[in-house]
Amino acid sequence: MNGDLLNIKIKTDHHYSEKKVKSGTLIQDLMPVQNMAFKHRNVAAKVNNSIKELTHALCEDCQIEFLDLSDIDGNRIYQRGLSFIFIKAAREILGDCYVTIEHSLSKGLYCEIKYSREINESDVMDIKVRMQEIIQQDIPFIKERISKSEAMTIFKEQNMESKVKLLKFREKDEIVIYTCGGIKNYFYGHMVPSTGYIDIFDLKYHKPGVLLRFPQKNNPHGLPEYFEQKKLAEIFKETENWGHLMKLPYVSDLNERIETDTYEEVIRIAEALHEKKIAYIADKITKENKRIILIAGPSSSGKTTFAQRLSIQLKVNGLDPIAFSTDDYFVERDQTPKDENGDFDFESLKALDLELFNTQLKDLIEGKEVDIPIFDFIKGKKGFGKKILKVSSNQPIIIEGIHGLNSSLTHEIPEKDKFRIYISALTQLNIDDHNRIPTTDSRLIRRIVRDSQFRGHSAKTTLQLWPAVRKGEETNIFPFQEESDVMFNSALVYELAVLKKYAEPLLKEINKDDKEYFEARRLLKFLSYFLSIENENAILNNSIIKEFIGGNCFYQDK
Fold first, then answer.
1. Domain co-membership, 63 together with 78
2. What is the pTM for the complete model shown?
């Protein structure tokens, strides 16, 4: 077979070059010559629409597209390699310690080290130096397939109990693990060939843990500027505490509750925690006598249901809030800004008539009668005379929109009158100690289900639209997170076990020839870790999850 020649097409600069190679040739041996000086920027390859590691041996004709750090999958692979190096270095420097990869923070990964004492800056510097040494040694990541029982024995010996518990629920009897310099580990996804591929990183002390920093998609050749996210760190800590309260830090813990049919209490506690936090926010708004309540968050955060539940809690406090939308304040179509592709950019702040919006908000606060516009999206013009509004002093105005945290949206409104709320689904559950569940994946699963249930979209369509959605979030929402007065985590610890039965059949509809096939397979693998919750009777009809699966009491048409 090794004597056979394969026809290979390699994509470079939007063009394919053809060559013949022997069967068994490794992908890494085919990287274009012009990229060899930067070979460590290429971390994997897409082969016939399926991602393969650079050490993969080719055995059939194919098309190859190399993936670097500007590609989302390439960036994930880089992060896994960096995480493994960090875990290895920490164990070698501190000895009897245990590393957990917690969540994203400040454009990095927040990690903690369980040790006999609290770690300090000197420890972090020593670990960083050791990481640099490991990278310079260019130690290979050796991939091997072993039985589930063998893997469980290995992880027991290394005190990786979260991985042992996870494997109890694995259906397949085979698992892929990686060995690097004597340390064996399991990672959810592909890996770089060796430690030398991780050439840009930083390790920063972030009490009580550390930040693992790496290049971002939009700047794959350097580290992003560091900025502290104190409020986001606090909400993650609150979420972690909730997880400990329910004794559900990992997927395996949730699976045990489902397997023993004791999950309904989990649902009730999770929903009660949400209601308690919403009531707290309403009390804070009432006490501070805020008139303008601005709610913003990324796609599929549950903003609409949250706004309804907040409104009810404000009414409990004797207020009579009204909802106010920015959608009717678009500028005339011929004044709408355009993006780099020449298309109308309706998500730009400049797409809104800010002067009219602020003038009318000020008038409403002052008790004046206002002629609210109604925007005709077909004609691309505002109309007046059909919506006359006047509010009293006990009527705070709730405004939900992507620019809510941006002070420029309400630049003429006094700060004393505004209350900003950031909402997102910040997942508290992790697969195991070293494999986290990105909040983006949770929101994507939510959106796939909702788009199918209520918008008639296939999973393929949702995946096609998702990059543009994410780009808008990066531009208009995430930079303003820390401007919020309070953050609300809309994630529910049990939700992925509910969403699984809705999402899986939708993702399985995506064909192997579709560009979205690999992402669909990745999400299916991710969902496979969860046991499914089939009985939804314990879920309240005002739950945020009902915004995505249906049965939400705020929307009778659903």
1. no
2. 0.91
